[in-house]
UniProtKB/TrEMBL annotation:
Keywords: Signal. The keyword Signal applies. Pfam families: DUF538. Residues 1-19 form the signal peptide. This is DUF538 family protein. SUPFAM superfamilies: At5g01610-like. It comes from Theobroma cacao.
């Protein structure tokens, strides 16, 4: 009788533990589950929501965020939204890139092997995926250790 109660208790608690799995993952870990590197989001994501059935997601930053990356400037709103599936993010909202003198919204992101393709609607550009293995920091991007002439040996 006691064994039956223990088994029943385990079976009742299983769905609750599986349902809370996403709550334990960071937004960066969820990106990796969808075959994206963590560096497509800057450091400092404070939370996220994800509907695994529809792929709709929202990632929350503690305010807006901008930084330089190579010859581009990137800007993130405090909320980034879109629809994520394996290797593809569509209906992206909240991320823009400065090209020459114009800010353009990045509306789609897709992974093709070792390349990430960023689309602004009428045009797109591809970059090696290893450029995104590290999350940039707001303000200084990936060059934070080089501020004030100091270059880190790390």
């Amino acid at each position: 009788m006691a064994l039956r109660s223990v088994i029943l208790l385990i079976l009742i608690s299983l769905p609750a533990s599986f349902a809370s799995t996403d709550e334990k993952l960071s937004a960066y870990q969820v990106l990796q589950q969808y075959d994206f590197p963590i560096g497509i989001l800057p450091e400092g994501v404070i939370g996220y929501e994800l509907n695994r059935d529809t792929g709709e997601f929202s990632a929350y930053l503690n305010g807006t965020c901008s930084f330089p990356i190579e010859s581009y400037d990137l800007s993130y709103k405090s909320t980034v939204q879109g629809v994520i599936s394996r290797g593809r993010i569509t209906k992206l909202n909240g991320v823009s890139v400065k090209v020459l003198f114009f800010w353009l919204n990045i509306v789609e992101l897709s992974r093709h092997g070792d390349e990430l393709e960023f689309s602004v609607g009428i045009a797109s550009a591809s970059f090696p995926i290893d450029n995104f293995f590290e999350s940039p920091q707001c303000g200084c991007g990936l060059y934070c250790n080089q501020l004030n002439g100091f270059v880190s040996s790390i």
